[in-house]
């Protein structure tokens, strides 16, 4: 049992929450410590690494990533790949399959894969390696057979990608636009074909001006969902505020790399070498290359932008859960998984539970 100020689907209550693997009861009543805030665990749909390891390494890298991010309140996540040669992607997927099948002790639940590449535009790669190819249904089905793909990023203007979108949607995959040089019109056509969201909004896509609205304009005008990196480095706070007003179910992701939780230095991002310095990760060219963001810091950043705590929480838990169709996560309600983060008055995690398991925060 936990007690404090609890965010429920119908709003805040002061009281207690009982749980084992799932939540059994939430009730109002007096509490011993009214300074504690109890939120749904965070759900990160775009995470590449942490603690010096990268998802593309395969093996048990995913377990290390899941454990590291759990200590910052992330209770569920998608292991996210990079553009790479086909055999490298298959190695990463094989490693993720084991972590998806069995949650590592002390770690977040791996809900599946975010396949970010290789179906991207060569001219909008950002920090992605240049190993792009055109997508085919057979190739995606082959990847999906190795590990379940929940989200797939592609550039809709490339090859036959637009025609492929309805087929991917029929497989239950959320298709997102990202690393795209497409126009506003390309974005609108992709949304009509079944695209569900946008990958790290503003980054890796054509920007907006009043003559050529670009892919950003398509998102702001038409999207219900989009992910954004709220580390205050990838996107200017003013642009974040625009997106928060325009996209009803905007949600935050970390795009975290192997450098997350590590000292300044050189790290891997797939086949790329990246450098952590001054709180961000860059290629040798100086271009941003993922982040060192954690979801608890994302919460504090959203609140710092002026969001109330419930709204900030929803953009890191409820919205991504609903986007994936995960109705038993991202909310504190009887019957839901006991994925819980407890925060102090500074919004720092003091306790985290994943499916009822208490996570050891001492190594954070």
From TrEMBL:
User: What is its cofactor?
Assistant: a divalent metal cation
Under the heading SUPFAM superfamilies, the entry gives: Composite domain of metallo-dependent hydrolases, Metallo-dependent hydrolases
What are the catalytic residues?
A: 255 (proton donor/acceptor)
* All copies of domain Amidohydrolase-related, residue ranges: 37-357
Note whether Hydrolase occurs among the keywords: yes
Q: What is the lineage of its organism?
A: Bacteria, Pseudomonadati, Pseudomonadota, Betaproteobacteria, Burkholderiales
Name of this chain's protein: N-acetylglucosamine-6-phosphate deacetylase
Which Gene3D superfamilies does its entry note? Answer: Metal-dependent hydrolases, Urease, subunit C, domain 1
Q: Which domain of life is it from?
A: Bacteria
Write out the residues that bind Zn(2+).
Answer: 116, 179, 200
GO molecular-function terms, A-Z:
metal ion binding; N-acetylglucosamine-6-phosphate deacetylase activity
The entry sums up its family as follows: Belongs to the metallo-dependent hydrolases superfamily. NagA family.
GO BP term (any one): N-acetylglucosamine catabolic process
């Amino acid at each position: 049992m936990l007690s404090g100020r609890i965010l429920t689907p119908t709003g805040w209550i002061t009281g207690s929450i009982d749980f084992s693997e799932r939540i059994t009861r939430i009730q109002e009543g007096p509490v011993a410590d009214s300074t504690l805030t109890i939120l749904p665990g965070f759900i990160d749909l775009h995470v590449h690494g942490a603690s010096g390891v990268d998802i593309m390494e395969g093996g048990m890298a995913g377990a290390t990533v899941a454990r590291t991010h759990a200590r910052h309140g992330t209770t569920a996540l998608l292991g996210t790949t990079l553009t790479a040669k086909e055999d490298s992607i298959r190695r990463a997927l094989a490693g993720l399959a084991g972590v998806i099948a069995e949650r590592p002790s002390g770690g977040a639940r791996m809900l599946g894969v975010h396949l970010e590449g290789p179906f991207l535009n060569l001219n909008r790669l950002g920090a992605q390696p240049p190993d792009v190819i055109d997508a085919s249904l057979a190739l995606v089905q082959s990847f999906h057979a190795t590990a379940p793909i929940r989200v797939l990023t592609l550039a809709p203007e490339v090859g036959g990608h637009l025609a492929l979108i309805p087929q991917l949607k029929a497989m239950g995959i959320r298709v997102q636009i990202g690393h795209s040089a497409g126009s506003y019109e390309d974005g609108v056509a992709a949304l009509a074909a079944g695209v569900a969201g946008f990958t790290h909004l503003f980054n890796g896509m054509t920007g907006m001006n009043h003559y050529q609205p670009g892919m950003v304009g398509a998102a702001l005008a038409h999207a219900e969902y989009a992910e954004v990196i709220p580390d205050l480095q990838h996107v200017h706070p003013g642009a974040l505020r625009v997106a928060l007003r325009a996209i009803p179910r905007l949600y935050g992701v970390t795009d975290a790399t192997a450098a997350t939780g590590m000292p300044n230095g050189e790290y891997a991002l797939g086949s790329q070498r990246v450098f952590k310095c001054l709180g961000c990760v860059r290629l040798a060219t100086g271009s941003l290359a993922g982040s060192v963001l954690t979801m608890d810091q994302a919460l504090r950043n959203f609140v710092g932008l002026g969001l109330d705590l419930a709204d900030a929480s929803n953009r890191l838990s409820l919205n991504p859960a609903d986007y994936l169709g995960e109705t038993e996560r991202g909310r504190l309600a009887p019957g839901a998984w006991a994925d819980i983060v407890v925060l102090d008055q500074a919004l720092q995690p003091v306790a985290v539970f994943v499916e009822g398991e208490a996570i050891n925060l001492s190594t954070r």
